[in-house]
Amino acid sequence: MGKGRLEAFSDGVIAIIITIMVLEMKVPHATDLAALAELVPVFLSYVLSFIYVGIYWNNHHHLLHVSHRVDGRVLWANLHLLFWLSLFPFATGWMGENHFAALPTAAYGVVLLAASIAFFILQRAIIRVNGGAESELAGALGKDFAGKISPVLYAAAIPLAFYNQWISDALYVLVAAIWFIPDRRIEKVISA
Fold it and tell me: Where does the UniProt annotation place the signal sequence (predicted)?
């Protein structure tokens, strides 16, 4: 089965997710800086989520670029990932509108954790259908430090939100920073 429809569908869903997130930022009715100041938490949560969605889009692109085939498991694993990504606008809006309160911050972490697990499942499904452990993708991913540390940091951030939500937010920013630079391992395979 070809991968073209999977890529096109995923790109479309991700574009809609970003559009929905930006539409959650309501235009202030006042014209002073104080009106904009009230939007700072919403804007910050949007920026963080925009970066996360961009990271997923970028890594999804790289993952599919080195993939030669997909099957039913890959299609379902991809839908699983898109499901969790589609919750980003809700989690982002809830966290931002409530000024990073504990429960919305923890819920944001649950969505991030679930998306990272879904991406791992998608990776494994793509590796399986494209040659298994001996595939070029499996070799490119190697030990995948970032892929292993991210869920651990999300899992720590979720309960920490009830102690101090700023620690959780710092962990979310840290994970985004870890992933911000595109995965060079896959780019090396692509260029080889």
Answer: none
pLDDT single digits (tens) 112-162: 999 999 999 999 999 999 888 777 777 777 778 888 999 999 999 999 999
d(CA 113, CA 109): 6
Reading the block at residue 67, the tokens are 């993939």
The count of C-alpha atoms lying within 13 angstroms of the C-alpha of 138, restricted to the half-sphere facing its C-beta, is 12
Sequence-ordered list of residues with C-beta below 8 angstroms from that of 25, at least 6 positions apart, any chain:
39, 42, 43, 46
Q: Which H helix or E strand runs over 11?
A: helix 4-23
Compute the chain's Rg from CA coordinates.
18
- Give me the amino acid identity at 66: V
- Structure token digits, residue 166: 């700023």
Q: Single out the residue of 127, 141, 146 nearest to residue 186, CA to CA.
A: 141
- Extract the tokens encoding 31: 């014209």
81 vs 55: CA distance, rounded Å: 13
Identify whether the C-beta of residue 137 lies closer than 8 Å to the C-beta of residue 189: yes
